[in-house]
Design brief:
The strands form 3 sheets. An 8-stranded mixed sheet has the order 1-5-6-11-10-9-7-8. It has a 5-stranded mixed sheet with strand order 13-12-14-15-16, sandwiched between helices. By secondary structure, it is an alpha+beta fold. The longest helix has 20 residues. It is built from 15 helices and 16 strands. The protein folds into 2 domains: 291 residues, BirA Bifunctional Protein, domain 2; 78 residues, 3-Layer(aba) Sandwich (Rossmann fold), CATH 3.40.50. Helix content is 38%, strand content 20%.
Length: 398
């Protein structure tokens, strides 16, 4: 029989328990923050009709979208982001969703990227959006939720860069503005010189220099001042906010304020971003429906937290391994679980030393050795062993 080589597709990943626990910790923290502000969960299918997604993300998005014809002859595409599916949901369930509709969505998205460090073909997106309110108070709340989320995760030195897409629309024609915004969006990644080179192929070097000068000379807009004045209503310090006229965010659908969060302690790039997009949601209903949202750079958040040592030492998991050394072992495990502890029963029939080695390899902090009617708790860090009854054992572990 031939052997199949075990491997994952390029751009796709497995997450073994150690990494999966980190991801779950971050997600649990974020969900609690989102729901404390009244945001509700939403899930949408991986597959959408192709015409739902195509043409909504600009040229690059159309190139990177996974699309194919299914067995029924339908043209379909895999979820590229969560904003366009949100627009479809709002139009499709207009009678069931009271506006403003505040939702969070945590699902994988798919892009046919050239894989490199930090860029994958399947990755988790974590989004919050408020649909149906034109008020800049909604923008301020979205920013406040993002700031509070990063505070809860333990980040200290971070700020919110804010710009207004009107900076581009007021200076340039709509077509020019989109091209320029896409180029300017790359400044942080490739530097000003390469962006000038890219723009010069479209308009010449002199005009490209003029574009950058115009953008750099822009002053804070009225919308920025309003959001800055509102942010304190949510208990967020205004000092987090910084006006950055070079902030572009390359997606075509942004119409108003745009923002990104970056940390001084993590120079690899922004940790998330978003903005106002008042024209996209209504594209499926024919009505203009204002919206504003934020997307967390989940992989970067995980990487930054690991680098900055922000994860708790104990991320949950099994607290106690009960040894398979007595007919009582299974019952002892049940009794310990009733004390709100995560308990694993060793199910294989191996000598005690093998069971202890297993616990050590699994980084389980305690092993409960069952010897007939006797219970002996071993601390796997110190090697100390103590005897006791179930209640005493539970207290020792806690």
């Amino acid at each position: 029989m031939s052997t199949i080589q075990p491997k994952t597709l390029k751009g796709f990943r497995d997450f073994l328990p150690k990494e999966a626990r980190k991801r779950n910790y971050v997600l649990d923290t974020l969900k609690k923050v989102f729901e404390s502000y009244g945001f509700e969960p939403l899930e949408t299918p991986v597959l959408e009709y192709e015409d739902i997604l195509a043409g909504k993300y600009g040229d690059e998005g159309d190139k990177l979208m996974y699309r194919f014809t299914d067995n029924g002859g339908r043209k379909v595409a895999m979820r590229y982001d969560q904003t366009v599916p949100l627009a479809r949901v709002v139009a499709q369930y207009a009678n069931d969703l009271p506006l403003p509709f505040k939702r969070y969505q945590i699902q994988n998205v798919y892009r046919a990227e050239n894989t490199q460090k930090g860029r994958f073909r399947e990755f988790l997106q974590v989004d919050i959006d408020t649909v149906g309110s034109p008020s800049l108070l909604a923008d301020a709340e979205i920013i406040a939720v993002a700031v509070k989320s990063f505070e809860k995760l333990g980040f200290k030195n971070f700020n919110v860069k804010i710009n207004d897409r009107s900076v581009f629309s007021n200076l340039f024609s709509d077509k020019e503005g989109k091209v320029i915004a896409r180029a300017i969006d790359k400044i942080e990644k490739v530097g000003e010189e390469k962006v000038l080179d890219e723009l010069s192929t479209v308009m010449g070097m002199k005009a490209a220099n003029n574009v950058l000068q115009k953008i750099n000379s822009q002053k804070k807009t009225e919308s920025f001042f309003k959001v800055a004045s509102y942010i304190s209503k949510f208990g967020i310090n205004e000092d987090y906010l910084e006006f950055d006229p070079k902030l572009a965010r390359g997606l075509d659908y942004y119409t108003g304020l745009i923002f990104e969060i970056a940390s001084e302690d993590y120079p690899a790039g922004s940790l998330g971003g978003g903005g106002r997009y008042d024209d996209l949601i209504g594209i499926f209903s024919g009505n203009k429906i204002p919206a504003v949202g934020f997307s967390f750079g989940f992989d970067r958040v995980i990487e930054a937290m690991a680098e900055l040592d922000l994860f708790p030492e104990n991320l949950g998991g099994t607290k106690v391994l009960v040894t398979n050394t007595s007919p009582r072992s299974a019952q002892v495990a049940i009794e310990l679980r009733a004390k709100d502890l995560n308990v694993e029963l060793f199910v294989d029939e191996k000598p005690l030393d093998r069971q202890l080695r297993y616990a050590d390899k699994r980084k389980i902090p305690f092993v409960l050795i069952v010897k007939g009617d006797k219970l002996e708790l071993k601390d796997m860090t110190t090697g100390e062993q103590k005897k006791g009854e179930i209640d005493e054992i539970a207290e020792m572990v806690k």
